[in-house]
Design a protein that fits this description.
heterodimer; A: 4-stranded antiparallel β-sheet; B: 367 residues; mainly alpha; MetI-like fold; 2 domains; 0% strand; binds adenosine-5'-triphosphate; binds magnesium ion
Chain lengths: 258, 367
């Protein structure tokens, strides 16, 4: 398996926000990611879906090095991910991530959650960081919760805080790993609304989600993964109405049937 | 359903039977509910009846409070005169009487500074904390041992009593905590060499009784260092106790680190925090909060274990009391001494434990 021959885009001249070229990953013997080739343009919105265990989380976690890939190249904002810690830090500063379980810091107030990284990573003065934090809290429509602790908020509010926390670092790319799947149905909308707003502002986004309505509305491209491989990718129109592979059809029939 | 549904008047509630409420009800439910509970209650009452009055009578009613020598203890109860006469020695050991103000002064600085940290709205907490951690130990060292700033040199063999107990306990705990944290982090490190060193250190120190550590520090250690090079015995004991305590704290803290979910690490990493910033800002505050009970527990254990320093010839609080009890003029009052020692240790340990409860409640942020 040669890396270059399967690459969709090998120029690497800064046209893409993210390039994954022939990426493989193993957990011990288990081959989680098999020859992933993916180029994400600036301002592009990508929705990744697929059955449980297909490697969706692993894929996006490789992009900010929460997981290490063993073969292939990952280039984020023209920085190649290697073992160089400096580069990893650089990339993490440019890439925000929102998790299924929010991962807010429970010992800090909402405001401190938001200002922590700008102050300690970006070396922003405290006042400025607080202004920025309030700006983003207002954007996710919960400025009045600033002094509360995460444990005192609802799930939907926590997830919006988590989104605001990432945005405070002024990232160029946002990764979402099933941001609504731990939420009660009535809270899903408030989070999706925030994400739609963000998309409309032109953020580069990769979203792992099963919210097909969201995919339809926002995505430039939908990617279907199964067994660690990208099975199919297309614009939402084509993807939902005219899926090519059998596995995609099966998957779509399963998740659209209920 | 027909219209003929009969209507019911609700009759007023009857008061509960007297035997289930109030004192009688409580007694019945808790003390006399079954025949064996009744038996145990009676047995317990009998023991209390037999034991408590004599103790009260010994400690208070027939005790001697006034006087200056053993001849004033005539009533047959406790001779608190003994404690009163030796009180200064129990607190300060053999520290020269005219220099005792230095200990008082040092303690007052410590207490005042620590007290400011209790006020939620006090604005200079950070500065006070920094002072306590970095400046105070140096100030205290020169204040207590002297030989600088015109203060007379008081060699450490003269240090003793409650003063020495607290010096050992506080130094042992305060310096052991950061070492323990580093050891705990090291034990969970990805780097095999770091991990091996930390595991070896922790297991070595945890595997040895404190008495052995103290003997090593006082008897063996001088055999290994070049002749002429001498270290203060107290300093050696302090270092030994500190490392011993650090090994224990490391394991307590490791327990806390293990309880922090992986998502916290990932959340911090995704924001671009480096390892140390992640640990100091995110992981350790949560982990340490979780293990406050464990840390306090080992601090209380250490406070009581300081009494072991007697065997290497340091006269801590208990040591001074024992020494006083063997004074020819005051033979026969050991019981009063031990009761007093138990009382003081209990007050200290109970105070610490209450404080830790307060701390846990204050740091609780509802998750
Ligand atoms: N740390 C790990 N060690 C070993 N195997 C792992 C580890 N993390 C994930 N896996 C395995 O890798 C596969 C892909 O996991 P991944 O979390 O990427 O799936 P996913 O597509 O996100 O699934 P889901 O929809 O359930 O979140 C799964 O089979 C999982 O069991
Ligand atoms: Mg997943």
């Amino acid at each position: 398996m040669s890396d270059a021959q399967t690459a969709t885009s090998t120029d690497g001249n800064g046209g893409s926000a993210i390039q994954m070229i022939g990426v493989h990953k193993w957990y011990g013997q288990f081959h989680v990611l098999k020859d992933i080739n993916l180029a994400v343009d600036r301002k592009e919105k990508i929705v990744v879906c697929g059955p449980s265990g297909s490697g969706k989380s692993t894929l996006i976690r490789c992009i900010n090095r929460l997981e290490e890939h063993q073969r292939g190249q990952i280039i984020v904002e023209d920085i190649e991910l290697t073992n160089d810690l400096k580069k990893i830090d650089e990339i993490r500063r440019e890439v925000g991530m929102v998790f299924q379980h929010f991962n807010l810091f429970p010992h800090l107030s909402v405001l401190d959650n938001l200002t922590l990284a700008p102050i300690w990573v970006r070396k922003m003065p405290k006042d400025e960081a607080e202004d920025v934090a309030m700006k983003f809290l207002t954007r996710v429509k919960i400025p009045e919760q600033a002094t509360k602790f995460p444990g005192q908020l609802s799930g939907g509010q926590q997830q919006r805080v988590a989104i605001a926390r990432s945005l405070c670092m002024n990232p160029k790319i946002m990764l979402f790993d099933e941001p609504t799947s731990a939420l009660d149905p009535e809270m899903i909308k408030e989070v999706l609304d925030v994400m739609v707003d963000l998309a409309e502002e032109g953020m580069t986004m990769i979203v792992v989600t099963h919210e097909m309505g969201f995919a339809n509305r926002v995505a430039d491209r939908v990617i279907f993964m199964d067994g660690g491989e990208v099975i199919e990718q297309a614009d939402p129109e084509t993807f939902f109405n005219n899926p090519q592979s059998e596995r995609t059809k099966l998957f779509l029939s399963q998740i659209l049937s209920h | 359903m027909t219209d003929a549904t009969p209507t019911f008047e609700r009759s007023p509630d009857l008061p509960p039977p007297a035997s289930t409420v109030g004192v009688v009800g409580w007694l019945r439910q808790n003390l006399f509910s079954t025949w064996y509970n009744t038996l145990l209650t009676i047995l317990a009452l009998w023991i209390v009846w037999e034991a408590v009055p004599p103790v009260i009578s010994w400690a208070f009613l027939t005790a001697d409070w006034a006087g200056t020598s053993r001849d004033d203890c005539t009533s047959g109860g406790a001779c608190w005169v003994f404690i009163k006469e030796w009180f200064g020695q129990f607190i300060y050991g053999r520290y020269p009487i005219e220099e005792r103000w230095r200990i008082n002064f040092g303690s007052i600085i410590l207490i005042v500074c620590a007290a400011t940290l209790f006020f939620p709205r006090f604005p200079y907490k950070l500065w006070v904390s920094l002072f306590l951690i970095f400046v105070y130990p140096i100030v205290a060292f020169f204040l207590f041992s002297g030989d600088a700033f015109g203060l007379e040199w008081v060699e450490t063999p003269l240090w003793g009593g409650l003063f020495l107990t607290l010096v050992i306990a506080i130094v042992g705990c305060v310096f052991a905590l950061p070492i323990g944290i580093v050891l705990a982090l090291g034990r969970r490190s990805d780097m095999p060499a770091v991990r091996a060193v930390c595991v070896a250190f922790i297991e070595l120190w945890r595997g040895v009784p404190l008495i052995t550590v103290l003997f090593m520090a006082s008897v063996m250690f001088p055999l290994f260092v070049p002749e002429g090079l001498t270290f203060d015995k107290l300093l050696r004991a302090l270092i030994g106790i500190m490392l011993f305590q650090a090994a224990y704290l490391a394991e307590v803290i490791r327990g806390g680190l293990q309880a922090i979910p992986r998502g916290q690490y990932e959340g911090a990493q995704a924001l671009g925090l480096s390892y140390w910033k992640m640990m100091i800002l995110i992981i350790l505050p949560q982990a340490l909060k979780l293990v406050i009970p464990g840390i306090v527990n080992s601090f209380i254990a250490l406070l009581k274990d300081t009494t072991l320093v007697l065997i290497i010839g340091l006269f801590d609080f208990l040591g001074m009391i024992q020494a006083a009890g063997t004074n020819p003029d005051w033979l026969g009052f050991a019981v009063e001494g031990y009761v007093f020692a138990a009382f003081v240790f209990w007050v200290l340990c109970f105070g610490i434990s209450r404080y830790s409860l307060h701390l846990e409640r204050k740091l609780h942020t509802g998750h």
